[in-house]
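Q: What would this chain look like folded?
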Amino acid sequence: MKYKRIAVVKRGPPENLQIIESDLRDPVAREVRIKVLACCVCLPDVQVRYGLTPAIWRDQPKVPFTPGYAIVGSIDAVGMGVTHTSNGAKVAAYLILGGYAEYVFVPEDKIIPIPESLDPIQAVTLLLNYLVAYQALHRSARAKAGDKVLIIGASGGCGTAFLDLGRLVGLKMYGLASKSKHATLAEFGATLIDYRTEDFVEVIRRAELAGLHVVFDGVGGDYIDKSFALLRRGGVLVEYGNPLSMRGLLRVLGRTLVLDLLPNGKRIKLYGASGFMLFHRKPFLQDWAILFRLLQEGKIRPPISGVFPLLEAARANALLESGQVIGNLVLAAPELLNS
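A: My prediction, written as C-alpha coordinates:
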Protein backbone atom coordinates (compact mmCIF):
# COMPACT_ATOMS: atom_id res chain seq x y z
CA MET A 1 0.00 0.00 0.00
CA LYS A 2 1.21 3.51 -0.83
CA TYR A 3 0.68 6.84 0.88
CA LYS A 4 1.38 10.40 -0.24
CA ARG A 5 3.51 13.08 1.32
CA ILE A 6 4.86 16.48 0.34
CA ALA A 7 8.60 16.74 -0.18
CA VAL A 8 11.01 19.60 -0.75
CA VAL A 9 12.73 18.39 -3.91
CA LYS A 10 14.95 21.47 -4.27
CA ARG A 11 15.72 24.45 -2.04
CA GLY A 12 13.69 27.49 -2.91
CA PRO A 13 10.12 28.71 -3.53
CA PRO A 14 6.83 26.90 -2.79
CA GLU A 15 6.68 25.24 -6.21
CA ASN A 16 9.59 23.08 -5.05
CA LEU A 17 7.11 21.27 -2.82
CA GLN A 18 5.94 18.20 -4.70
CA ILE A 19 3.75 15.18 -3.98
CA ILE A 20 5.61 11.88 -3.80
CA GLU A 21 4.47 8.37 -2.93
CA SER A 22 6.06 6.07 -0.37
CA ASP A 23 5.36 2.57 0.83
CA LEU A 24 3.15 2.48 3.91
CA ARG A 25 5.07 0.30 6.34
CA ASP A 26 4.03 -1.17 9.66
CA PRO A 27 5.20 0.63 12.80
CA VAL A 28 8.28 -0.80 14.48
CA ALA A 29 8.52 -1.66 18.17
CA ARG A 30 7.26 1.07 20.53
CA GLU A 31 6.14 3.18 17.57
CA VAL A 32 2.70 4.26 16.38
CA ARG A 33 1.44 5.05 12.92
CA ILE A 34 -0.77 8.15 12.82
CA LYS A 35 -3.21 9.11 10.10
CA VAL A 36 -2.75 12.86 9.80
CA LEU A 37 -5.94 14.90 10.19
CA ALA A 38 -4.42 18.38 10.43
CA CYS A 39 -0.98 19.95 10.14
CA CYS A 40 0.01 23.53 10.87
CA VAL A 41 1.77 25.63 8.21
CA CYS A 42 4.29 27.91 9.90
CA LEU A 43 7.32 30.10 9.31
CA PRO A 44 9.85 27.36 10.21
CA ASP A 45 8.43 25.30 7.33
CA VAL A 46 9.27 28.14 4.94
CA GLN A 47 12.70 28.71 6.45
CA VAL A 48 13.77 25.08 6.22
CA ARG A 49 12.61 24.91 2.59
CA TYR A 50 15.03 27.73 1.76
CA GLY A 51 17.79 26.14 3.83
CA LEU A 52 17.48 28.71 6.61
CA THR A 53 17.37 26.44 9.64
CA PRO A 54 17.90 27.76 13.18
CA ALA A 55 21.51 28.03 14.28
CA ILE A 56 20.82 25.60 17.14
CA TRP A 57 20.26 22.79 14.61
CA ARG A 58 23.46 20.90 13.89
CA ASP A 59 22.55 19.92 10.32
CA GLN A 60 20.06 20.93 7.67
CA PRO A 61 17.81 18.12 6.42
CA LYS A 62 18.95 16.65 3.13
CA VAL A 63 16.75 17.04 0.04
CA PRO A 64 14.27 15.47 -0.48
CA PHE A 65 12.60 15.86 2.91
CA THR A 66 9.09 16.46 4.20
CA PRO A 67 8.36 19.63 6.21
CA GLY A 68 5.61 19.91 8.79
CA TYR A 69 6.17 21.03 12.37
CA ALA A 70 3.20 19.56 14.22
CA ILE A 71 0.17 17.39 13.51
CA VAL A 72 -3.07 16.13 14.99
CA GLY A 73 -4.29 12.72 13.87
CA SER A 74 -5.68 9.34 14.84
CA ILE A 75 -3.62 6.27 15.59
CA ASP A 76 -3.88 3.85 12.71
CA ALA A 77 -1.55 1.05 13.86
CA VAL A 78 0.72 0.31 16.84
CA GLY A 79 4.01 -1.55 17.04
CA MET A 80 5.11 -4.22 19.48
CA GLY A 81 5.47 -2.99 23.04
CA VAL A 82 3.06 -0.06 22.73
CA THR A 83 1.03 -0.12 25.94
CA HIS A 84 -0.38 3.35 26.63
CA THR A 85 -2.50 3.96 23.55
CA SER A 86 -4.46 2.05 20.92
CA ASN A 87 -5.92 2.27 17.43
CA GLY A 88 -8.41 5.08 16.93
CA ALA A 89 -7.06 7.33 19.68
CA LYS A 90 -6.80 11.02 18.76
CA VAL A 91 -3.29 12.31 19.43
CA ALA A 92 -0.92 15.11 18.50
CA ALA A 93 2.78 15.10 17.70
CA TYR A 94 5.43 17.81 17.74
CA LEU A 95 7.63 16.66 14.86
CA ILE A 96 9.61 19.68 13.58
CA LEU A 97 9.84 17.80 10.25
CA GLY A 98 7.56 15.29 8.52
CA GLY A 99 4.01 16.52 9.07
CA TYR A 100 3.04 17.23 5.44
CA ALA A 101 2.01 13.61 4.92
CA GLU A 102 -1.01 11.35 4.99
CA TYR A 103 0.70 9.21 7.64
CA VAL A 104 3.51 9.77 10.11
CA PHE A 105 5.43 7.40 12.38
CA VAL A 106 6.12 8.52 15.94
CA PRO A 107 7.65 6.80 19.01
CA GLU A 108 4.95 6.11 21.58
CA ASP A 109 6.68 8.26 24.20
CA LYS A 110 6.58 11.29 21.86
CA ILE A 111 2.85 11.42 21.20
CA ILE A 112 0.74 14.06 22.94
CA PRO A 113 -2.65 13.12 24.37
CA ILE A 114 -5.49 15.28 23.09
CA PRO A 115 -9.18 15.41 24.07
CA GLU A 116 -11.36 13.52 21.60
CA SER A 117 -13.86 16.39 21.40
CA LEU A 118 -11.41 18.92 19.96
CA ASP A 119 -11.56 19.99 16.34
CA PRO A 120 -8.18 18.90 14.86
CA ILE A 121 -7.99 22.04 12.71
CA GLN A 122 -8.21 24.31 15.75
CA ALA A 123 -6.18 22.06 18.04
CA VAL A 124 -3.16 21.87 15.74
CA THR A 125 -2.63 25.65 16.04
CA LEU A 126 -1.91 25.19 19.76
CA LEU A 127 1.06 22.88 19.32
CA LEU A 128 3.54 25.52 18.18
CA ASN A 129 2.19 29.07 17.99
CA TYR A 130 0.06 28.98 21.12
CA LEU A 131 2.64 26.95 23.02
CA VAL A 132 5.33 29.55 22.30
CA ALA A 133 3.04 32.38 23.36
CA TYR A 134 1.83 30.61 26.49
CA GLN A 135 5.30 29.70 27.70
CA ALA A 136 6.74 33.11 26.86
CA LEU A 137 3.89 34.77 28.77
CA HIS A 138 3.78 32.51 31.80
CA ARG A 139 7.15 30.82 32.12
CA SER A 140 9.55 33.45 30.74
CA ALA A 141 7.86 36.78 31.53
CA ARG A 142 5.46 35.65 34.28
CA ALA A 143 3.02 38.28 33.01
CA LYS A 144 0.12 39.28 35.25
CA ALA A 145 -3.09 41.26 34.95
CA GLY A 146 -2.49 44.92 34.29
CA ASP A 147 1.01 44.52 32.88
CA LYS A 148 1.74 46.71 29.87
CA VAL A 149 3.26 44.72 27.02
CA LEU A 150 4.32 45.11 23.39
CA ILE A 151 3.94 42.32 20.83
CA ILE A 152 6.19 42.70 17.79
CA GLY A 153 4.67 40.95 14.79
CA ALA A 154 1.16 40.89 16.22
CA SER A 155 -0.62 39.56 13.12
CA GLY A 156 1.27 36.28 12.68
CA GLY A 157 0.56 32.89 14.18
CA CYS A 158 2.53 33.56 17.37
CA GLY A 159 1.49 37.21 17.48
CA THR A 160 -2.23 36.48 17.45
CA ALA A 161 -1.67 33.77 20.06
CA PHE A 162 -0.04 36.39 22.30
CA LEU A 163 -3.03 38.68 21.75
CA ASP A 164 -5.54 35.91 22.50
CA LEU A 165 -3.78 34.65 25.62
CA GLY A 166 -2.88 38.17 26.77
CA ARG A 167 -6.54 39.17 26.57
CA LEU A 168 -7.32 36.23 28.84
CA VAL A 169 -4.70 37.33 31.39
CA GLY A 170 -5.89 40.94 31.37
CA LEU A 171 -2.80 42.61 29.92
CA LYS A 172 -2.71 46.10 28.45
CA MET A 173 -1.37 45.24 25.01
CA TYR A 174 0.29 47.11 22.17
CA GLY A 175 0.87 45.31 18.89
CA LEU A 176 2.83 46.05 15.71
CA ALA A 177 0.97 45.18 12.51
CA SER A 178 0.35 46.70 9.09
CA LYS A 179 -2.70 48.96 8.87
CA SER A 180 -4.64 46.57 6.62
CA LYS A 181 -4.75 44.02 9.45
CA HIS A 182 -5.89 46.31 12.26
CA ALA A 183 -9.63 45.79 11.78
CA THR A 184 -9.32 42.02 12.11
CA LEU A 185 -7.02 42.24 15.13
CA ALA A 186 -9.20 44.80 16.93
CA GLU A 187 -11.26 42.05 18.59
CA PHE A 188 -8.35 41.27 20.92
CA GLY A 189 -8.52 44.71 22.51
CA ALA A 190 -4.91 45.75 21.84
CA THR A 191 -3.70 49.18 20.78
CA LEU A 192 -2.38 48.55 17.27
CA ILE A 193 0.53 50.45 15.72
CA ASP A 194 1.25 50.51 12.01
CA TYR A 195 4.98 49.82 11.93
CA ARG A 196 5.18 51.04 8.32
CA THR A 197 3.95 54.58 8.95
CA GLU A 198 4.40 55.12 12.71
CA ASP A 199 7.44 55.19 14.97
CA PHE A 200 6.35 52.64 17.55
CA VAL A 201 9.01 53.81 20.02
CA GLU A 202 7.60 57.34 20.05
CA VAL A 203 3.98 56.12 20.18
CA ILE A 204 4.63 53.97 23.24
CA ARG A 205 6.81 56.52 25.00
CA ARG A 206 3.98 59.04 24.77
CA ALA A 207 1.41 56.52 25.99
CA GLU A 208 3.44 54.80 28.72
CA LEU A 209 5.66 57.31 30.48
CA ALA A 210 6.87 54.73 33.00
CA GLY A 211 7.69 52.20 30.28
CA LEU A 212 6.55 48.67 29.53
CA HIS A 213 6.65 45.60 31.72
CA VAL A 214 7.33 43.16 28.87
CA VAL A 215 8.15 43.10 25.15
CA PHE A 216 7.69 39.89 23.13
CA ASP A 217 9.89 39.88 20.03
CA GLY A 218 10.20 37.16 17.42
CA VAL A 219 11.96 39.35 14.84
CA GLY A 220 15.24 40.41 16.45
CA GLY A 221 17.68 42.70 14.66
CA ASP A 222 17.16 46.38 15.41
CA TYR A 223 14.04 45.56 17.41
CA ILE A 224 16.19 44.28 20.29
CA ASP A 225 17.73 47.65 21.20
CA LYS A 226 14.56 49.63 20.44
CA SER A 227 12.42 47.30 22.55
CA PHE A 228 14.88 47.21 25.42
CA ALA A 229 14.77 51.01 25.59
CA LEU A 230 10.99 50.90 26.11
CA LEU A 231 11.16 48.74 29.24
CA ARG A 232 10.68 50.14 32.71
CA ARG A 233 13.09 49.20 35.47
CA GLY A 234 12.65 45.48 36.11
CA GLY A 235 11.09 44.96 32.69
CA VAL A 236 11.72 41.91 30.51
CA LEU A 237 12.36 41.52 26.79
CA VAL A 238 11.49 37.98 25.68
CA GLU A 239 13.23 36.99 22.43
CA TYR A 240 11.47 33.95 20.98
CA GLY A 241 12.64 33.92 17.35
CA ASN A 242 15.35 31.45 16.31
CA PRO A 243 18.37 33.13 14.66
CA LEU A 244 18.97 31.50 11.28
CA SER A 245 22.76 31.63 11.35
CA MET A 246 25.52 31.21 13.88
CA ARG A 247 26.42 34.85 13.31
CA GLY A 248 22.85 35.87 14.10
CA LEU A 249 22.79 33.69 17.20
CA LEU A 250 26.06 35.13 18.46
CA ARG A 251 24.77 38.65 17.86
CA VAL A 252 21.64 37.99 19.93
CA LEU A 253 23.69 36.37 22.70
CA GLY A 254 26.17 39.25 22.63
CA ARG A 255 23.46 41.91 22.88
CA THR A 256 21.81 39.93 25.65
CA LEU A 257 25.00 39.80 27.70
CA VAL A 258 25.73 43.49 27.20
CA LEU A 259 22.21 44.74 27.92
CA ASP A 260 21.73 42.46 30.92
CA LEU A 261 24.85 43.94 32.52
CA LEU A 262 23.48 47.48 32.46
CA PRO A 263 22.53 48.74 35.95
CA ASN A 264 18.86 49.36 35.18
CA GLY A 265 17.18 46.16 36.35
CA LYS A 266 16.06 45.24 32.84
CA ARG A 267 16.56 41.73 31.45
CA ILE A 268 16.49 39.80 28.20
CA LYS A 269 15.23 36.23 28.24
CA LEU A 270 15.76 33.90 25.29
CA TYR A 271 13.08 31.33 24.51
CA GLY A 272 13.28 28.46 22.02
CA ALA A 273 10.65 25.72 22.09
CA SER A 274 12.37 23.15 19.87
CA GLY A 275 15.63 23.27 21.81
CA PHE A 276 14.12 23.17 25.31
CA MET A 277 11.72 20.41 24.31
CA LEU A 278 14.60 17.96 23.98
CA PHE A 279 15.41 18.23 27.68
CA HIS A 280 12.22 19.36 29.43
CA ARG A 281 9.24 17.48 28.00
CA LYS A 282 7.12 17.55 31.16
CA PRO A 283 6.42 21.33 31.19
CA PHE A 284 5.41 21.12 27.53
CA LEU A 285 2.89 18.37 28.22
CA GLN A 286 1.51 20.39 31.13
CA ASP A 287 1.14 23.53 29.03
CA TRP A 288 -0.41 21.72 26.06
CA ALA A 289 -2.97 20.22 28.45
CA ILE A 290 -3.83 23.72 29.70
CA LEU A 291 -4.19 25.03 26.15
CA PHE A 292 -6.38 22.10 25.10
CA ARG A 293 -8.64 22.79 28.09
CA LEU A 294 -8.86 26.50 27.26
CA LEU A 295 -9.89 25.59 23.72
CA GLN A 296 -12.49 23.12 24.98
CA GLU A 297 -13.96 25.78 27.25
CA GLY A 298 -14.09 28.35 24.45
CA LYS A 299 -11.75 30.72 26.28
CA ILE A 300 -9.31 30.99 23.40
CA ARG A 301 -10.18 31.39 19.71
CA PRO A 302 -7.27 30.63 17.37
CA PRO A 303 -7.68 32.79 14.25
CA ILE A 304 -7.32 30.71 11.08
CA SER A 305 -6.89 32.52 7.76
CA GLY A 306 -7.11 29.45 5.59
CA VAL A 307 -7.58 25.68 5.58
CA PHE A 308 -6.11 23.79 2.62
CA PRO A 309 -6.26 20.15 1.53
CA LEU A 310 -3.33 18.26 3.02
CA LEU A 311 -1.63 17.74 -0.33
CA GLU A 312 -1.94 21.41 -1.35
CA ALA A 313 0.87 22.52 0.93
CA ALA A 314 2.56 24.47 -1.86
CA ARG A 315 -0.47 26.76 -2.17
CA ALA A 316 -0.62 27.27 1.60
CA ASN A 317 3.11 28.05 1.74
CA ALA A 318 2.76 30.60 -1.06
CA LEU A 319 0.01 32.37 0.87
CA LEU A 320 2.11 32.39 4.04
CA GLU A 321 5.01 33.94 2.17
CA SER A 322 2.74 36.63 0.71
CA GLY A 323 2.54 38.38 4.09
CA GLN A 324 -1.26 38.57 3.90
CA VAL A 325 -2.01 35.96 6.56
CA ILE A 326 -3.52 36.87 9.91
CA GLY A 327 -3.09 34.09 12.44
CA ASN A 328 -2.76 30.52 11.27
CA LEU A 329 -2.85 28.34 8.17
CA VAL A 330 -3.74 24.66 8.40
CA LEU A 331 -3.54 21.63 6.10
CA ALA A 332 -6.43 19.22 6.63
CA ALA A 333 -7.34 15.68 5.58
CA PRO A 334 -10.19 15.31 3.03
CA GLU A 335 -12.63 13.91 5.59
CA LEU A 336 -12.42 17.12 7.64
CA LEU A 337 -12.93 19.34 4.62
CA ASN A 338 -15.89 17.34 3.36
CA SER A 339 -17.68 16.97 6.70
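The mean pLDDT is 91.
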